[in-house]
């Protein structure tokens, strides 16, 4: 009797372990593969635990998404403060928005329903940091070696984004509306508004690098590939359909009457197809 009880307990234990009933962290999945591809059998299978995350998380990695259609300025400033400046806490867009309304030109903000670089400068000064808006060439923006807020005119709208860096002819930005995106150098120069940039002066020991370019940012389809394949008419092979149409047609022997043809005067077969047209 004892042997039966022990055996039942062991069977339950091994069944529980084999069914993998333990709780797993959020985002954990298992995939199964053969240990030996030459022997596709149940006994040769194993399961490995991996963690996955939604693509949208990486798209907005390090970026504070704008909560309103007019709040790109506050979201861009929050992204810059959280990702580059060690202020001792993580700010929310609402906190920065309240600060911009308090220390900025409140009446003008309400009137134009947007924030300006001057509003940003006043708020940054209120939290004890030096900052400023500048005008310069593209080379000046790159040589700074630090993230900066830049205004762009894109898709018919004026917009604030955070310049992250430049590499291999592409400009990488943190867009509060679209996430981590990039432009080729020529396109960025076209959309960059008035060559203006906003910098926060931070001593090296108080800097963070959450806005540094990462490998995930480099995974993009270059514009030449998009232009080549995105707007072409798809061409499908027609040989098979042509053969079917020929089989369903009437064959007639005609003489070649084209004087410019090498087969002029010779007889050849023509396939006469019957087409129907809706009235």
Automatic annotation (TrEMBL):
<protein>
    <submittedName>
        <fullName>Peptidase</fullName>
    </submittedName>
</protein>
<dbReference type="GO" id="GO:0008233">
    <property type="term" value="F:peptidase activity"/>
</dbReference>
<dbReference type="GO" id="GO:0016020">
    <property type="term" value="C:membrane"/>
</dbReference>
<dbReference type="InterPro" id="IPR005074">
    <property type="entry name" value="Peptidase_C39"/>
</dbReference>
<feature type="domain" description="Peptidase C39">
    <location>
        <begin position="66"/>
        <end position="199"/>
    </location>
</feature>
<dbReference type="GO" id="GO:0006508">
    <property type="term" value="P:proteolysis"/>
</dbReference>
<dbReference type="Pfam" id="PF03412">
    <property type="entry name" value="Peptidase_C39"/>
</dbReference>
<dbReference type="GO" id="GO:0005524">
    <property type="term" value="F:ATP binding"/>
</dbReference>
């Amino acid at each position: 009797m004892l042997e039966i009880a022990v055996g039942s307990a062991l069977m339950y234990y091994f069944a529980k372990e084999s069914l993998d009933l333990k709780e797993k962290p959020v985002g954990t999945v298992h995939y199964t593969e053969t240990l030996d591809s030459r022997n596709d059998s149940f006994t040769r299978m194993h399961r490995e635990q991996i963690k996955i995350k939604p693509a949208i998380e990486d798209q907005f990695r390090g970026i504070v998404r704008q909560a309103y259609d007019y709040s790109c300025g506050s979201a861009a400033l929050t992204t810059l403060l959280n990702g580059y400046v060690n202020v001792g806490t993580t700010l929310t867009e609402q906190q920065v928005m309240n600060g911009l309304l308090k220390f900025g030109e409140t009446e003008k903000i309400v009137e134009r329903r947007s924030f300006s670089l001057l509003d940003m400068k006043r708020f940054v000064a209120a939290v004890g940091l030096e900052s400023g808006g500048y005008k310069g060439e593209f080379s000046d923006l790159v040589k700074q070696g630090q993230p900066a807020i830049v205004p762009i005119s894109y898709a018919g709208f004026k917009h604030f984004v955070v310049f992250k860096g430049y590499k291999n002819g592409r400009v990488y930005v943190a867009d509060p509306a679209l996430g981590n995106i990039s432009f080729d150098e020529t396109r960025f120069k076209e959309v960059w508004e008035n060559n203006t940039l906003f910098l926060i002066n931070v001593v090296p020991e108080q800097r963070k690098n959450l806005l540094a370019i990462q490998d995930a940012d480099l995974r993009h389809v270059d514009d030449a590939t998009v232009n080549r394949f995105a707007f072409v008419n798809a061409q499908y092979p027609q040989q098979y359909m042509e053969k079917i149409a020929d089989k369903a047609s009437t064959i007639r022997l005609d003489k070649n009457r084209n004087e410019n043809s090498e087969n002029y005067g010779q007889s050849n077969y023509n396939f006469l197809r019957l087409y129907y047209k809706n009235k």
